[in-house]
Amino acid sequence: MLEDNALNTIRIPLYELLELPVFEGSRVLGGAEGLSLTITGINLTDTPDYYNWINEGELMVTTCYAISGDAGALSRFIPTLYEKGLSGVCIKPRRFIEAIPRGMIADANKLCFPLIELPEDIHFSRITKAVSDMMLHHQTDLLMRISRVNDLLVKTIVEGASLNEIAQMISSLVESTVLIMDSINGRKAIALTPAAKLAFSGMNVKEQDIGRIITENSHVHPLHVENRPFGYIYIYDQQKPLSKFNESMIDKLSQTIPLEISRVRSLRENEDVHFKDFFMHILNDKITDEAREKERAQSFGLDAESSHMILRLTVSETKDASTQYSSMLQRTLLFCEIRTTLQNIGISSRLVHDEDQFLLILSSSEDGRRFTHMMDRFFCLLENIMSQYPTLKLTMGYSRSRIGLSGLIESDREARIALRAASSVHKAGGIVSFGDMDLFRLIYADDPNSEISAFIDETIGKLIDPSHPKGKELLNTLESYIKNYGNVKRVSEETFTHYNTVVYRLNSIKEATGLDLRVPEQRFRLETALNLYRLLS
Question: Residue 117 and residue 36: Cα distance in Å, rounded?
């Protein structure tokens, strides 16, 4: 049991013991490098065969009475104590030996074995009482910590403590910063000590970089159950190593934390499966009752009336990736940072796994223009995030901002095309925006005919709409303008229309399409859409 093992192995560092008032006036004559050794108790044996009555980890306190007249025994004293595994020796000279021999001091320094000279007036009974009181205090403190560990175990198993609560409690127990990485659900929980908060603040470390720094400078404890990886516990403390008790405690906890991870996974699987089924239904099936589907979307926390974007992405490992578990951990950290970054700039996200791709469904209460600006900011931050994951390759395509259920369908179509372009163009990973693809969208479409129709409708849809009162006139004017290379006078002559009327119609075309014929790229887009329309007609 954790309690039995801990109480049977209470050890106090020697340097901590020497800070007790009872040791005032004592001097470390040799072996100062060994003051970090820990003691399990005091040994007052003072007989010629002392070596038969000492135990590993003890601190010998003696006057050397039994061996004071034996030069050979005095010369073998320090090496014998060292070989027996003692943690140090305190000698009170003057009464039986005038001074501590130089040979003893030399041996102590050579073996890094602490040799302490006690003052003449010290009473051994006071030493044993002070040490006993200190060990009792440590034992009481340890019992309280064991009780807290048991409380944590019970809370985890029975009450269902959250990952953040578990991280905070472990941090309190080990007095160190703790990060728990849940590689099953893509979560992480960080509990910073006050000292760590101050240190990170002084280093001007960004919030999204703290997790990476901790993982690179920590004691790592895998969370495994029956060889199945659930994640890792990182204990971050550059000042001191973990004690054996803390190691034992974390080993114990590492068997129960997967319970919390499994519980969350089970809840998420039910929710995620239902949401994924609903979302794929929206994308792939004909919507017959839009009001009902909007209600279902709302039940999943998806407001159909908000602005939406869809990101389709793939994540793969480079040749420099180490192990499968390491890649899995890096991927988990990456998705955590991406979703946290989106949340921090005001964009909510839902993650859906679709075969070999991931879909990020992004939502914002802002209008399309503001939403696009927010995404521009996100992609600037994403560049910095990806620099922290050199072994991962991220390929992404994303749509324009849309509203409504039909907008989600269009967003997914655009994201698919953009991802196909990104995968083709950026072999080492990259990002493509559908809004920036222009005519390249026709090349990478999985259904070129549908994409051509969508392109025509987006570009000159209002001009070819039969309900537009002047649509045919504007379309003819546009065709003549392109044919005559922008010469308005020749357009006027060819269409038998007054010059000023042609100018008016050109302005109307700009208003209807949002495209300016004086800008070469926009004129080319209009020309392409017109030619495709005539070809299909």
Answer: 18
Q: How far apart are CA 517 and CA 483, in angstroms?
A: 13
pLDDT digit string (tens) for 274-320?
A: 888 888 898 888 888 888 999 988 888 888 888 999 999 998 877 66
**Quick one: average pLDDT of 118-131?**
91
Beta strand 430-433 with 392-398: parallel, antiparallel or unpaired? parallel
Rg (CA), the chain: 38
In whole numbers, what is the pLDDT of the chain averaged over residues? Answer: 84
Q: What are phi and psi of 217, to 5 degrees?
A: -135, 45
Please name every residue paired with 62 in a beta bridge, in sequence order, or none if there are none.
91
In a domain, residue 43? The reply is yes
The pLDDT tens digits for 402-436 are 998 889 999 999 999 999 989 887 766 789 999 88
Q: Model confidence over 437-473: pLDDT tens digits?
A: 888 888 888 888 888 888 889 888 888 888 888 888 8
DSSP for 25-52, written as a single string: T-EEEE-GGGTT-EESEEE---STTGGG
Residue 275 phi/psi, 5-degree rounding, is -65, -45
CATH number at residue 465: 1.10.10.2840
Q: DSSP for 480-507, please give it.
A: HHHHTTT-HHHHHHHHT--HHHHHHHHH
Q: How many CB atoms lie within 10 A of CB 256?
A: 18
Within a domain: residue 148?
Answer: no
Q: Which of 253, 239, 360 is nearest to 311 (CA)?
A: 360
Is 219 among the domain residues?
Answer: yes
To 5 degrees, how large is the angle CA 279–CA 280–CA 283? 90
Q: How many contiguous H segments (helices) and E segments (strands) does the chain have?
A: 20, 17
Of the listed ranges 82-86, 161-165, 225-229, the least confidently predicted one is 225-229
**Distance between CA 353 and CA 360 in Å, rounded?**
9
Residue 317 pairs with which residues in a beta bridge? 392
Residues 78, 197 within the same domain = no
For the chain, first and last CA: distance in Å?
A: 83
Instruction: Give the integer Cα–Cα distance in Å for 323 and 347.
Output: 33
SS3 sequence of 291-328: HHHHHHHHHCCCCCCCEEEEEEEEEEECCCCCCHHHHH
For residues 29 and 113, the answer to whether their CB atoms sit within 8 Å is no
Mention every residue, 6+ apart, whose C-beta is less than 8 A from residue 140: none
In the block, which residue shows the tokens 């006139």?
A: 473
**Mapping DSSP to helix (H, G, I), strand (E, B) and coil, where does residue 348 land?**
strand
Q: Which two tokens stand for residue 492?
A: 């006027």
Domain that holds residue 166: 160-262
| Spatial separation of the C-alpha atoms in residues 263 and 6, rounded to whole Å | 30
292 and 414 together in one domain: yes
Which residue from 175, 419, 455 is spatially nearest to 310, judged by alpha carbons? 419
pLDDT value of residue 136: 80
Of 94-108, 161-175, 465-479, 484-498, the one with minimum mean pLDDT is 161-175
Average pLDDT over residues 139-166: 66
Whats the size of the chain, residue-wise? Answer: 537
Domain-embedded: residue 155: no
Q: Kindly state the tokens that stand for 241.
A: 């190593």
